[in-house]
């Protein structure tokens, strides 16, 4: 489960493009921050993706990946040209295929090989036609689905939604939010050549005039229970309300938002699949494991990363490609895992009511984030040498690390039990044992 959104220059306060995503997955699945440099590859080279091997290209671009620890692909990320992509699980009537390319593999392939959003649409659909999509996407349990994508560059954005080998794509105007459901109806700009005919042949619609992609191809039962309707509507409504005033902070607020019920009962005692900031527990299997905001401008692209689950308690930290040394390479995934695990321990301590003064921690976290936002705003306004930007990034990440480490160290000795109802407590006790906490 996930939520992805974009605001183009016509809808933002400063005329930039702002892209954001929460990755909602099984709560014990680590979400790693990985930097991959530009590379050249020998003729005839092969590339091992999560399940299958495909032909490599002569050169791949520099990329920032936010990825589940066990797979080759990524849930979201960007490349050196400002191309950003996020994917969503969608549930359709089309039968699942054998293990092939995952949606996360398709996302990473597009980032490594494309410069623009439209180029990425064509590459993903070409790979889909050649290799198909399929395979288990779950970490501790089997979970299969098809994929949709929100793809943005510095000037444009596209929505691409798939159902097995079939797909439809729509160019974004102003703002758009996607969740775990097909959203494109009759108003697509590009589509699989047999998209309509296949739906008619299956009896999902009567004629071309009756065709509506989301209505014809959606598995309504799975889509309903994903809670995606509430999340998509919440994100879309906020973007529409703020159109012309949207900022990085607006996107952060949406990623941290909860449905009204969760605000009343408290997010650390009740699960909610209908909140953009998703909280697992009981029968709800997914939880927000990573969050991301990209601020794309003509002068400088700035990325805001939590590197942690649960954005309502996390700190977004700035990142620029020039400061690549702050993140980890694919050969340093153990260090990237330690980074995520420390912040996940903080989340689990909060669930166990062990953080002595949660209010103080959250106030201090908010102060740090506001300070980081002010520093970055000054950099964007006046420009800064790459070495200065790297110094800002290192300082921000170090100060966040110090706050998290000190809070965890103070909280570990406090004995208490997980709050909430029986289902919720048992769910998180089980997750903690599996994670070794």
Give an account of the 3D structure:
The chain is an alpha+beta fold and 437 residues long. The chain has one domain (2-328): Penicillin V Acylase, Chain A (4-Layer Sandwich), CATH 3.60.60. 36% of the residues lie in helices and 21% in strands. The chain has helices at 103-113, 117-131, 195-201, 213-217, 220-225, 228-241, 248-255, 260-265, 333-351, 358-382, 386-411, 422-435, and strands at 2-7, 17-25, 31-36, 39-40, 46-48, 53-55, 59-60, 63-68, 76-79, 84-90, 146-152, 157-163, 166-171, 175-178, 190-191, 287-296, 302-305, 317-319. It has an eight-stranded antiparallel β-sheet. The chain has a six-stranded antiparallel β-sheet with strand order 14-1-2-16-17-18. Strands 4-7 form a two-stranded antiparallel ribbon. A hairpin with a 7-residue loop joins strand 8 (63-68) and strand 9 (76-79). Helix 1 packs across helix 2, helix 9 (333-351) crosses helix 11 (386-411) and helix 10 (358-382) runs antiparallel to helix 11 (386-411). The longest helix has 26 residues, at 386-411.
Q: Which tags fit this structure?
A:
36% helix, 8-stranded antiparallel sheet, 437 residues, alpha+beta, 18 strands, Penicillin V Acylase, Chain A, 6-stranded antiparallel sheet
Task: Name the poorly predicted regions.
Answer: none
Largest sheet: 8 strands, antiparallel
CATH homologous superfamily (4th level) name = Penicillin V Acylase, Chain A
Helix content: 25-40%
- The portion of residues forming beta strands comes to 15-25%
Q: What is the CATH fold-level name?
A: Penicillin V Acylase, Chain A
SS field, number of helical segments: 12
Order of helices and strands: EEEEEEEEEEHHEEEEEHHHHHHEEEHHHH
Distance between the termini: 25 Å
Q: How would the global form be characterised?
A: globular
Return Rg in Å. 21 Å
Rounded mean pLDDT is 94
The total number of structural domains is 1
Going by CATH, the architecture would be: 4-Layer Sandwich
- Strands of the widest sheet, in order across it, are 3-8-9-10-11-12-13-15
Classify the secondary structure makeup into a structural class.
alpha+beta
